Amino acid sequence: MRPLRAFLAVAVALGLAPGTVWRSDVRPIDPGAAIVFTPADIAPDARRQGPLLLTGAWALSSMSRGLGGYSALIARSDGSLLAASDAGGLLAIERPGTRAMEARFLAITGSAERDKRDADAEAMAHDPASGRIWAAYEGSNAIEALTPDLAPISRVEPAAMADWRSNSGPESFARLADGRFVAIAEVVRAGETFNRGVVFPDDPTAGAKGEEFRFAAPEGFRPVDMTQVPSGEVMVLLRRIEWGLPPRFVNAIVRLDPAGLEPGTVWRPEEMLSLPRGMPNDNFEGIAATGPADGKAGGESILWLISDDNFSAFQRSLLVRIVYSGPAQTRVKGARKLRAPFTQSLSQKSERRLRRPRRSPS
Who contacts 31 (Cβ-Cβ below 8 Å, separation ≥6)? Predict the structure, then answer.
């Protein structure tokens, strides 16, 4: 093995190894164990970056080793947050960001009997009207509908996602306000330029058929989750890993117009938003939106981010609150236009519309 490959292998082992090896302690799985939120210090001059204002950060800890691995996050109608881990666990966070904030462990009904392939939830979606929840599973490229009480309703493995790699499946997933569902693969396939995506006109678990599109991620970044803010913009959370001992994670957010999402086309970000410098560094993989922050229609929204500690002693489970003021309310340093950088990868004709994929049943 060449020295570089050996270095990367060591970095992966130290930074991303499963917790059964790299946890600094061995803790029992105790669903009733207390979960503690410890505020993180934020430098006052490092809170603002463009339209993003960092207003809170908390480290989560518990005596239960069931805490951690969170890669999906949604906001529920009652204002609470729900996080899902790639180990099959769920975490409900009540009254997030307040002094009365608390959390408790939950689980999908029957999940204890599932293997990792059917439990690795990398993303979730939510319908605020019905309370229904959908989970997207990376190992099986499946989408599952759940009741508000987390009982399974139906599960489907969409044909349009059937050939997505098992370790880079639907990492980003959301239900848009217009009723469409969107899934984006984490990794660009060899020989391709863009991330694969599938858009469904309605609930895929109720028979809606998906059609392919492509997502143009900024160079070096991978999409890890997505959400839609109340004002309508779609926000995709990105991640890049800078290898070291331990590895360093770089996150950013891109803003997209849902009107530009069409089957057979490339969905391109309008802006890339760097996160505030005061952000604690870790592997943020989940994003959700609530708001408006001022309680008034058209006001600022709140973005919530949660990190995946990979069950590693070198990382933390973090919850972060960011106020997003929106493109119409602020245009300052920190928001970069992204229309130009991606026009070189495709011809003008193919940039407008990719070849339509074959329609096949989901």
Answer: 64, 66, 105, 107
The DSSP secondary structure of 335-348, one letter per residue, reads: EEE-SGGGTTSS-H
128-167 pLDDT per residue, tens: 999 999 999 988 899 999 999 999 999 999 999 998 987 7
The single residue listed with the structure tokens 């503690």 is 36
58: left (phi over 0), alpha (psi -120 to 50) or beta: beta
Q: What is the pLDDT of residues 40-66, one digit of tens each?
A: 888 888 899 999 999 999 999 998 888
Kindly report, residue by residue over 251-299, the tens digit of the pLDDT.
Answer: 999 999 999 999 999 999 999 999 999 888 899 999 999 987 555 555 6
Structure tokens at 249: 């994670």
Q: Of 112, 98, 109, whose CA–CA distance to 66 is shortest?
A: 112
Question: Strand pairing of 195-200 and 211-215?
Answer: antiparallel
Rg value, the chain, Cα? 19
Binning the chain into helix, strand and coil, the percentages to the nearest 5 are 10, 40, 50
d(CA 351, CA 223): 20
Q: What is the DSSP string of 71-82?
A: EEEEE-TTS-EE
Task: Locate all alpha helices (DSSP H) within the chain, ordered by sequence.
Answer: 3-16, 19-22, 348-352
Which residues in 226-244 are b (16+ Cβ under 10 Å) and which e? bbbbbbebbbbbbbebeee
Sign of CA dihedral 28, 96, 155, 196: negative
The CATH code of the domain at 3-352 is 2.115.10
